[in-house]
User: Fold this.
Amino acid sequence: MNESVVVIGAGPQGLAAAAHLLERGLEPIVLEQGSGPAASVSEWGHVRLFSEWPELVDAASARLLAAAGVSAPTSGDPFGAEWVADYLAPLAAALGDRVRYGARVTGVARAGRDLLVDAGRDAAPFVVHVRRADGTEERIVATAVIDASGSWATPNPAGADGLPALGETAAAAEGLVSYRIPTPDEVASLAGAHTVVVGNGHSALGAIVALARVVREHPGTRVTWALRRDAVGDAFGGGGADRLAARGALGVAARCAVEEGLVELVTGFRTAFIDHAGDDVVVIGEDGRALDPARRVIALTGFRPDLGILSEVRLDLDGRLQAPRLLAAEIDPNIHSCGTVRATGAAELAHPEPGLYIVGVKSYGRAPTFLALTGYEQVRSVVAALAGDHEAAQRNELVIPETGVCGGAGLFDEPADASGAGGCCAPSLAPVAFGRIPVAIMA
Assistant:
């Protein structure tokens, strides 16, 4: 067969999808809006993952690399930059000109049929509209489309109602509100200033730990951590009970930072307004509470899928998670953690538009429990279905190590006993190397 399947995104799952397509005799066209492979991963290249190499390498991709004379790493827990340099970039190189950079997908549709038209819809090929970096446009015809574009470009706002707080957009345009994992230089630049962190996930925990180190080294630096929940609850994670020691240590370090007074914790704070004048911002809650003026607000409140490019194809999405309806029940964060989410494949990812699949972190909608391994199993199953091997598509080939492989990044250079079983003490933050910021990433 020599059929073209368009894959949107040259990240971990997009490149894995291309490798599986090649093994199945299907021809992939990978469209990446960035200037190189895994452009989003490169933006958090300073972050180390919780997952180790065996959980970050796709099987078909490893076989393609081996055929090209490249061995994928087998031990250690890499930084994002290492994931790109040692695995994703060589994989993209092995795929050759099947990966097209500077190609931004602006829309997906059925040829000659808008969303309303039924007649002949399923028999019509897909058309993918692309805008290139030089502004030129093209229209690519495909037998199927795999959307692996991720959600990195669409972070959730600081506003507690899911919309940007009043004034937030203007403050962000001035660089006073950021939604990205801070780099070492950015953290260092906040010495002597007041910073507000909004969010309760591992990314927020990592930012808290990194900023607490600055507070310790530069008296006069202040950090306020604003939680929407009324009580701390499980915001600090599982500590010594966590199946991933590095992840548990991250929560312990954040708890210690609060208990030692390095970070001020504010609970039940739901951001409604962000007022800025000059170089400072004031964050105001729905209850009227105002935090002290800050130089920077770091909003690490998760991500959401950008579904705009799919507005002319028919989707079956859960109204709450914005994930495929059949997948949503398996990934609901109110029920599941990343350690309990089961493998899902083509059956759960199917939409009313045959041949269209959303995979990877974008398929999880607003749920934060995504794993690289589950994404690789998704694309294996989806490609099998596209190739007509329905038995393989229905088969579950995912094996999650007993230690757990929840995505994220933990304490860097942690002590030998990183379980966090003990109490808080001054040295708790010392093992965090200043130039390496522990923040969470869904790997």
About this structure: Confidence is low (pLDDT under 50) at residues 402-423, 425-443. DSSP finds twelve helices and 15 strands in the chain.
